[in-house]
Amino acid sequence: MVKKESEATKVTLNRRELLQAATLGAAATVAPQMGETADAASQALAQVGTPAVPTPARVLMNATINGERVSLDLDPRTSLLDALREHLGLFGAKKGCDHGQCGACTVHLDGQRVASCLTPAVQVDGREVLTIEGLAGPDGSLHPMQRAFIDHDALQCGYCTPGQIMAAVACVAEGNAGSDADVQEAMSGNLCRCGAYVGITQAVRQVAGQDGGAS
Ligand code: FES
Ligand code: FES
Asked: CB of 38 within 8 A of CB of 25?
């Protein structure tokens, strides 16, 4: 009985040794192949050359903002809205949705209203931007549209108001303020959570009736 256990142990050890030997043998066979594969990949990479040039870290943007020449060194992914707010300290244009859906960030680019959150700052290079901060006269006198918003209580919390006013000025300049319906259609991209739409429409209509509205 003892002899049988001893033999069984001997057989087990032999199997273990056999498995170890097989494993080592397989590794010894695979290792050179892996090494060859790595060498081949290294050679292929060397032939292809270095990876594609990464996105430039910074870009220079020169523009006229509210009548003043500015030069900004920016990450190329910077939006015009972020350039205005975070680099120039112009906080009038608001970040509502940041996806072009609320109009809170509306400014004028070469006289046309744009959603500054969707406008890459680099696209503004060499162009003119007007924000709510540049709308009043040099002497501080309010723009007729600003005055009309006050006259008609066209705001409550005021968050959407800079974008509403910039869009309203453009609406009149575009000739889209001939009726309440025209104004509402032309201003439909500017949302107001406070629901000040009646006053906004009245303000736009008032300015449209003043010599076509000043811009
Ligand atoms: Fe630009 Fe809403 S923040 S459209
Ligand atoms: Fe409050 Fe328009 S006045 S969101």
From this structure: no
Residues lining ligand 1, Cβ inside 6 A: 95-98, 100-105, 115, 117
Cut 0.85: pTM above it? no
Pairing of the two strands 112-115 and 106-109: antiparallel
Q: How far is CA 131 from CA 106, 111, 141, 143, 172, in A?
A: 8, 11, 16, 12, 17
Q: At what angle do helices 197-208 and 144-151 cross, to 10 degrees?
A: 140
Tokens encoding 111 = 């006289």
Q: What separation in Å is there between the alpha carbon of 205 and the centre of ligand 2?
A: 19
What is the pLDDT, as a whole number, of residue 210?
80
Distance CA 180, CA 171 (A): 12
Q: Is the dihedral of CA 78, 80, 82, 86 positive or negative?
A: positive
pLDDT at 1 over 50: no
Residue to substitute in 193, 197, 198, 200 for testing ligand 2 pocket (most ligand atoms within 8 angstroms of CB): 193
Q: Between 168 and 15, name the one with better pLDDT.
A: 168
Q: How far is the CA of 108 from the centre of ligand 2 (A)?
A: 20
Enter the tokens of residue 107. 């400014």
- Is the CB of residue 110 less than 8 Å from the CB of residue 119? no
Best CA proximity match to 59, nearest among 78, 77, 79, 74: 74
59-65/128-130 β-pairing? parallel
159 phi, psi to nearest 5 deg? -65, -40
Q: Which two tokens stand for residue 128?
A: 């003119």
